[in-house]
Write a structure and sequence with these properties.
The protein is of the alpha/beta class. Helices cover about 40% and strands about 20% of the residues. The longest helix is centred in the N-terminal third of the chain and has 15 residues.
Length: about 240
């Protein structure tokens, strides 16, 4: 089911039907899953927007639980977790799928459930960098050329002789994959600070000053290492008093 479910989103009717079924099955067991996790782990770590990924010692949560190891949670609603109870939260390539007000509320919920000194690691498309590709002289070179050509490859609405045009890539980033609001680094830092976080540090994908967060990222499994390095903005922030 995990492998099938991971690709159903390409077919909206089947995806929506499957998502509704998975949520209906998962919600009744959620309270016991959370209780068991909290009782079994003194060091508590939440992976929110987990997709199909689960890790030992982590509570993995998603709107559409693709396995029994994933707990049903809806980021548009208050999280069913106690305040000041977690040490780490990872939210990878999820916040861009909700509108900006919902995103702010979600960051506030992450702050609520984190203990003072707990760390949030958030990864999302780096819109500041990607939109910068539009102003580069053509033909593009290096990472910009690789990213744009890869994003534009295989789409019939893009003329074959214009596959290196970053305008098509930007339109896909804004409109596809259910994206609702894209962040640059300055904006994401501001909303983190507004939500009660400090000590915001930019990290590279896969890297962290915290052992628990090293190599915790999974987005590269969907996009490939180079694409992930080019497109992903990673910030780590500390929950303040």
């Amino acid at each position: 089911m995990m492998k099938i479910g991971a690709h159903l989103h390409r077919f909206p009717f089947f995806w929506n039907a499957a998502a509704l079924g998975l949520r209906s099955v998962s919600q009744p067991r959620r309270a016991k899953q959370i209780e068991k996790y909290l009782e079994s782990n003194e060091l508590r770590k939440l992976r929110f927007g987990a997709g199909r990924h689960s890790d030992k010692g982590w509570l993995s949560a998603d709107l559409v639980p693709l396995s029994t190891k994933i707990v049903f949670m809806d980021g548009r609603k208050p999280l069913p977790l106690p305040s000041d109870s977690f040490d780490f939260v990872v939210c990878e390539h999820m916040i861009e799928h909700v509108d900006v007000l919902t995103g702010r509320r979600l960051l506030g919920e992450f702050r609520r459930i984190l203990r003072v000194g707990g760390v949030l690691r958030i990864a999302t498309p780096d819109f500041g960098r990607l939109i910068g590709f539009v102003s580069l002289p053509e033909p593009l070179e290096g990472d910009a050329s690789y990213y744009v050509s890869t994003m534009n490859e295989g789409f019939s609405d893009i003329p074959e002789n214009d596959r290196g045009n970053p305008i098509y890539m930007i339109n896909r980033i804004v409109r596809d994959w259910g994206h609702r609001f894209l962040y640059n680094e300055v904006t994401l830092r501001r909303v983190l600070m507004d939500a009660g976080f400090g000590g915001v540090v930019r990290q590279s994908p896969g890297e962290s000053e915290h052992l628990e967060l090293v190599s915790i990222d999974r987005h590269q499994e969907e996009t490939g290492e180079r694409m992930n390095m080019i497109e992903t903005l990673v910030l780590e922030a500390v929950a303040t008093e």
